[in-house]
Every structure is written in C-alpha cells, then in structure tokens.
Design a protein that fits this description.
With 505 residues, this protein is an alpha+beta fold. Helix content is 26%, strand content 27%. It contains 11 helices and 25 strands. The model is unreliable at 1-29 and 175-191 (pLDDT under 50). The structure holds manganese (II) ion (2 copies). The protein binds 3 DNA strands through residues 47, 49, 64-67, 75-80, 82, 150, 154, 157, 159, 161, 219-220, 257-258, 260, 262, 270-277, 279, 293, 310-312, 337, 412-414, 416-417, 425, 427, 430, 432-434. Residues 1-22 have a biased composition (Basic and acidic residues). Residues 185-198 have a biased composition (Low complexity). It holds the Pfam family LigD_Prim-Pol.
Length: 505
Amino acid sequence: MKHKLEVYEQKRRFDETPEPRGRTARRSARPREGEGSFVIQRHDARRLHYDFRLELDGTLKSWAIPKGPSLDPTVKRLAVHVEDHRLEYGSFEGRIPEGSYGAGTVAIWDHGVWRPEGGLRGAREGYAQGKLKFTLEGERLHGGWTLVRSPMHDGKQESWLLIKQRDDEAVPEDEFHVVSDERAASNASNASKVSKVSKASKKRARASNEAEVAGVRITHPERVIDAQSGLRKIDLVEYFEAISAWLLPHVQGRPVALARAPKGVGGELFFQKHAKALQIPHATQHAGLDPGHAPLLTLESTEALVGAAQMDTIELHTWNALAASIEKPDRIVFDLDPDPSLPWERMLEAAQLTRELLDALGLRAWCKTSGGRGLHLVVPLTRHAGWEEAKDFARAVASHMAATLPERFSAKMGAQNRKGRIFVDYLRNNRGASTAAAYAPRARPGLGVSVPVDWDELHTLTSGDQWNVANVRERLEALRTDPWSGYEKARQRITAAMWKQLGGK
DNA sequence: GCGAGCG
DNA sequence: CGCTCGCAACGCACG
DNA sequence: CGTGCG
Ligand SMILES: [Mn+2]
Ligand SMILES: [Mn+2]
C-alpha cells in the first residue's frame, strides 16, 4: 500500500499542482460503521475517463472507467485498476497543469457512501479476491453494484468490470429503440418479454445481414461498396465466385497482396500481404517466405476467393513468382501509366510500341486492361533469373523506350516526368512487389476489372476500365478463343543478346 | 473486418 | 468492455 | 540528407 502511494507520488510533482499534499492527520466526518466514502471524478485528461474511488483501510482504492458507469445491468463497463489515492484526493476538483501526470481537468461527478456486502471484512476479502459487491448512496448513483476482476489481467494493470445489479435503481437501456414500441403498447415492464423481443429482433437482424456463398459466411451482403455502380458486397462476392474459373489460373500458387476496403470504394484502402491463422477464410499460408513476417498468402480455390471477398478484398495483386520458387520470378510486368490528359489512342500506340520492342528482343508479351487508366504488358519467363536481373532487365527496357521515344515515354515516376507521356512502370518487378491480377477488380468508382485481351483486338479497346464487375460477364460469354492463348506454353528467357541490344547492363 | 493493444 | 489502430514497403522523386 | 509519394 505504501508502495502504491509512492508510485503515485513519483508520477506527480506536488509543488506544481493544486492537488492536496497528503497529510497524516485528520479525517473528516466518517460514514457509519461498515461503510466508506466513495467518489467519482470526471477526469478530462488526454483521454476522458471517470475515476471511481472507494475508501478502504484509510486509502482510496481506485479504478479508471473510460466510459463511466452504466445504469443498465446488462452493460459491463471496463474499470482499469489504478494506484491507490489518498483520502484527501477525493475532494479534489480543478485543473492539473500541462506536463503533470494526468494533466487536464477534474470534476467531482458523484460522491457519497458505499456499503460493501459483508461489511469491512467483506470489502477486504472482495477486494483481494477480485469480486466486490456493494451499495452506493450518492447523488447520481444508487443501489447495488458489482465490481469484478476480469480473468484477463495481463501484466501491469488489472482489468475489472463495473456492473449495475438488477434492482429498482437499474435502468435497462438495452434495445431501447427496438423495444420501445412493444413497451408502449403494453405498459407492463416485463423484463422477460423485453428480452425475448430483443433476442428475436437480433436474430431477424442477423438473418437479413448474412448470406452464405461457397460455404463462406458473408456478413453485410447488402452493403453498397461502390456508390457509382451501386454494387453491393454480395455482388462482389458473387463476382469472385463466378469469375473463379478465369481468375484462379492467374493467382494460384502466387503470393498475393489483398487491397481491402471494409468501408467500400472511397473509404480507407489498405494492403495485406501477410496473415496469421486463418484470418482470410480458406486462404493458404506460406510461412518462412518472408522472414520476420507472418506467413504470406495464396488463394487456391473458389472458397478462398470468396473468403477474401468476405474480408472486403476488392483488389487482388500477385507477385511475379510462385511461392514454390519464390526467388525465381516467372514473368515481368510493364505497367503503362498514362498522363490522364492523354487521348486513349496514345495509350494503344504505347502498348503496341512496347510490344514491338519486346518482339524485337525476342520476347512475346501479353496484354490486359488494368481496370484503371492504363494497360499491363506481361512477359512470361522460365524461372531462370533472380529478382535482381529481372528488375534490371525491366528497367533497361523501360529506359530504352524512354530514350528512343522521349516524346511518348518516361521511365521516371512522378507526375512531372509523365507530363504528356506514358510512364513505363517497371518497378513492379521488385521482389515483393505486385500487380493487379487478371480479372481482379479495382477499388475505384465503377469497379473496373483487369481483363486479358488479344493483340488483334487492341484497336477496339476504349479504356482501361471498359470492363467492370458488372459487365465483364458479357465479354467472357462472347469470347470464342482464349485472348491469352500461348501464354502458358511460352518458354522464354532473358539472354545476353537481349542485354546487348539494349546497350548492355 | 477483425485481432491486438490499451485505457 | 469498447475504442482505436494497423493491416505493404521501398525505390525514387523532390527539396 | 530526410520526407513523401505511388
Ligand atoms: Mn484519472
Ligand atoms: Mn497502372
């Protein structure tokens, strides 16, 4: 106990604060035998909370309650056990200056008498054992209360819960809105009826708030994730399910980066490459590929795609290597990013020109819309080179384009460098970098989709996002041949001759 | 969307 | 309990 | 060099 007070005094510099210095003398008008004083101070500090203090054995046992007490017996309020305070502190109100521990303002929110069940002995035992039952007689709070130590107390501070007991002083607020009609109809305050109604309404709410697709529980299926198209979460989920046969060949075996948007397009978007446990339902984990991190992920099945969608994955980006040969990329990607002011025709020409350079080098490339503003050129490779060589080679190609056609291409990122031109983004060929996969949606208004195209149809393309989650099905149904035929069979490598043509390393 | 950390 | 916070990561452009 | 962007 003495120790606790010392800790407190160390945290405070008494000469700088208006709080009372502890004195050993005096003690004001005492409550009756078996009772003690209590106080709740509203403490507007770095974080607003309520300090709940019970007098016991000459000191104030103290808890910080972030949300303050609730009169609803079904509500448990976290009460973090904090240092004992001196009795004198119970009457403190005022400002704790900046720079002092607990800086902010303190106001007495309630005070009065607490009467522990079992008297003084009950209080001591309850406090030691982590379960205090007591009655409060304050100005705001009355009736029975329970303060229990939560089984989960990790490390320094104990977590307790403050709960109102069910008595006449309790004010149930649970489901107030849902139940209020019922209550008005029959003015009987029938607790069991209320709880039945609330249970039923919760069940109903869950039923309409959940769906099941490919064995995966889908929460909030009706939530609109893109205002522009009006598409809902369930539409995205069903898109992934329907596109599965087309999409899986492009993601299976490859570590992914998921771009997730729990609040939909326009909300916060974050990437996720790693996950512990089965945080993404049905995803496959690959521990050890990325040292110092949780396992990398691959998506191998329809269930995994749907699982990702349940977790609000919109974009699916893949590495340029398989998990099984993580140090040997099996392709390089050129991401053609146009200055937004350029006419689309320049974009098509750029793709064709890039293709011609690659062709001259002896490399076949395949093209897809990005689902956004541009196009992606994908060059499959046998798994012969390391990341360093693949990246250097991609940079050499981009630099060559920029050097030969500087009015059209830039190999430097940054809006400045791209002005009036197309940035050949070769940076997606670094280890750990990734590019939106074929048939993956993009987290942009309209939910564009990256779609593989045949070179023969290049001239018919109208934009990088001409296909989207809503209309790509039409495209696929109309297809007579695989636009990427030959891709799987390609066996090509980066050779010394290519380097020579590009002007050496 | 969800687990971890924290008050 | 209930809130808030991560959830990639790194070369490159710019100052 | 540090900082911020993509
Ligand atoms: Mn406090
Ligand atoms: Mn792009």
